[in-house]
Amino acid sequence: MMSKAAFISDLSLPVVTAPMFLISGPKLVIESCKNGIVGTFPALNNRTTAGFEEWIIEIKDTLVRWEKESGKRAAPFGVNLIVHKTNSRLQADLAVVIKHQVPLVITSLGAVSELINSVHSYGGLVFHDVIMKRHAEKAAGAGVDGLILVAARAGGHAGTINPIALVGEIRSFFDKTILLAGCI
Prior knowledge:
Layout: H1 4-9, E1 16-17, H2 26-34, E2 38-42, H3 49-70, E3 77-82, H4 90-100, E4 104-108, H5 113-120, E5 125-130, H6 133-142, E6 146-150, H7 163-171, E7 177-181
Parallel strand pairs: 1-2, 2-3, 3-4, 4-5, 5-6, 6-7
């Protein structure tokens, strides 16, 4: 599995470009990574699994080419997988993630240890979106590498808890990576 130190070493800032529904895609991810920021996008932003795979190939190929031309290292990229039972593409999209060894997977709406183990099998990291302590405890128990705290005022599936209070509550039992979403 990619170490926290290795993951952070390629960043110019400890920032993740959020996987924004209908907004994030290859261009935003590539430019984020070229500038030392983790770029992410939701798998479901591309309407088919085949298209999702094309995006991953485009991102990887473009970043490899840029690294060779610039002599610099790109930051890692990631994808957001919706784990909820209503996502009929989850298994097919996960197979693409595993095939292309996506460095970071952000899971939402369910933390499943089998998915986490699959990503860990090739060295990838899994961070999970949470809005409250109960969700964070489930994700921690499933073996995630980090938690993304989607507090009050964050975009998307925002929580209702003050960001500072939520960080304190989660840090009391979780000693791995915590990212605070939104609030900027």
